Amino acid sequence: MNPFALVAFLVLLVLYVLRELRAYRALGEFGGPATASFSRLWLGKAIYSGKMNLHFGRVNEQYGDTARIGPRLLLTRDPALIRKMNAVRSPYTRAEWYNSLRLHPTRDNIVSFRDETIHNKLRTQMSHGYSGKENMYLEHDIDERLLQVLGLIRSKYVSTDTEYRPMDLARVTTFFTLDVISTIAFGKSFGFLVTDEDPFDYLKQLHVFLPAIMLFSVFPDVQKIMRLPLIQRLAPQATDVTGLGKIMGFARDVVGERFGVDKVVRKDMLGSFITHGLSREQLESETITQITAGSDSTATSIRMTLFLITSNASIYSTLMNELTTAHEENRLTRPILRDTESRTLPYLQACIREGLRIYPPVTGLLAKEVPPQGDVIDGRFVPGGTSIGWNSWGIMRLKRVFGQDVDVFRPERWLPGGGQSKEQIDNMEEVVMLAFGYGRFGCLGKPVALMELNKTIAEVSLPSFSLILRYQDN
Ligand code: HEM
Ligand SMILES: *[C@@H]1O[C@H](CO)[C@@H](O)[C@H](O)[C@H]1NC(C)=O
Ligand SMILES: *[C@@H]1O[C@H](CO)[C@@H](O)[C@H](O)[C@H]1NC(C)=O
Q1: Where are the beta strands (DSSP E) in 348-391?
Q2: Beta-ladder partners of 387
Q3: With contact defined as beta carbons under 8 Å apart, do 322 and 348 qualify?
Q4: From which residue to which does the signal peptide run (predicted)?
Q5: Which atom of ligand 2 is nearest to the CA of 353?
Q6: Range list of H helices, 40-196
Q7: Which has the closest alpha carbon to 105: 236, 286, 10, 11?
């Protein structure tokens, strides 16, 4: 071997070891799994296990509210630190973790831009469409899809004396949220509920994609490989007939209709984005983001909450009683209750909050980066460039916030007399809403998601409807 090459190699090796050693020592004051201080092995294993949430939960339980899970990566369940990193004037930025959320082969989107100036501008432009203020059809669109899903269940999944017709709640809730988001995003439903199927294999592909995204997110080198032109050609394309590519094609067509001579003008989300100056290219990639950000998360929360409510006879009948009484006193609009009416139902609200707490749908790291000058966390110095991921599972199981029985689904904890004081309940409300992120990076679709949850949980549990479901159980 050329001696110069050998020397150069050795010098590089020494520099690399020194760099790693410095990183190792820099975060040395934070506890964590042994291998995590010098490798991403622990993290890779945690993600690969499919039970990342549980591993994360245990790490902070064992090593404190902020622990180390990688050479330059911390994991926190401290609500105060999360608010600080996400606050409007905070110098923290999105860490490299966010690169993995670039779904479009060549374009970044609102969730993947790491430059805060670009992200913030886009966020301001899009906030109007998401808030519902510039989207006249929001509630109406949700109602229509809800009627459709209830109709589907009635016509296809009600068992009779002679026939047992089980329904896969997981699939149907996903179909529902996909049709809702496509309707409110561009005035056209994907039609999952019409066919009651996954016609272009979107869900099938998602089962492969989502775990892959999780893995990419913690291995930046894999991200780089994914950006090679050869690999990019394998990425979803708008001309695909299946999966995400099909959705991209759908987005391209719908966006196309809003431009040109015979353009369609509609006062919906897409219309609002156009009013606020998004370009055609931006619209195409943002529409895909909307679909992916807004469907699986909301579906998870609806199905888990329904599952938890119906798994406990006492909780189920308490909710039924609340709804029956409101219904008998004519406090609920039929066929679908108004969003404002759902707020007058305290037990329903308690069930929704408790569902978000027990099963926060977004458990990925969403890592933010410490600003160049570094920061002091719990009295310990953290160098600039360190990533800090959030542990939503751990946050929602903080005993000092939610009480001792954090692992139990108990809506009563949100109500007076349920063991928590008024001040504690106020604090719980603030902490549980962290499930939607916070501040500069907080979920733009939160009003949409909450409206879907409020209406769906109520309608599916309403007496007239539940009678049918109960019959099915027997
Ligand atoms: C229960 C349902 C939902 C949950 C728990 C949830 C949670 C979250 C979380 C944790 C974030 C990221 C915060 C961060 O990066 O720090 C986020 C971002 C986002 N969500 Fe949601 N989400 C839900 C439903 C929706 C829906 C229905 C939509 C669309 C209508 C949506 C659109 C978005 C968008 C656009 C962002 C990016 C905001 C930004 O980058 O500034 N989400 N969401
Ligand atoms: C739906 O429920 C949430 C949480 O329980 C509540 O805060 C909210 O006001 C309700 N309505 C909407 C539109 O979010
Ligand atoms: C059912 O729910 C009630 C009320 O929240 C709770 O007290 C009880 O422990 C739950 N039962 C089970 C088996 O979890």
Answers
A1: 368-369, 375-377, 380-382, 387-390
A2: 73, 369
A3: yes
A4: 1-23
A5: 5
A6: 41-48, 52-63, 79-86, 116-131, 138-156, 169-186, 192-195
A7: 236
Domain 72-473 sits in CATH at 1.10.630.10
Distances (CA, A) of 356 to 288, 349, 397: 25, 11, 11
* 408 Rama sector, left if φ>0, alpha if ψ -120 to 50, beta otherwise: beta
For ligand 2, whether the C-beta of 343 sits within 6 Å is: yes
Q: pTM (2 decimals)?
A: 0.91
**What is the per-residue pLDDT across 201-245, written as a single tens digit (0 to 9) for each?**
888 888 887 777 777 777 767 666 666 666 666 667 777 777 778
DSSP letter for 380, please: E
CB 140 within 8 A of CB 131: no
As a whole number of angstroms, the distance between CA 285 and CA 140 comes to 26
Q: Which ligand 3 atom minimizes the distance to the CA of 318?
A: 4
Residues in contact with ligand 1 by the CB-under-6-Å rule are: 110-111, 123, 181, 290, 293-294, 297-298, 301, 361-362, 366, 435-437, 441-445, 448-449
The order of strands in the sheet holding 66-70 is 66-70, 73-76, 387-390, 368-369, 93-94
Q: Summarize the annotated binding site for heme as residue ranges.
A: 443
Question: HSE on the CB side for 256, CA within 13 Å?
Answer: 7
How many whole angstroms separate alpha carbon 48 and alpha carbon 59?
A: 16
Sign of CA dihedral 290, 292, 298, 302: positive
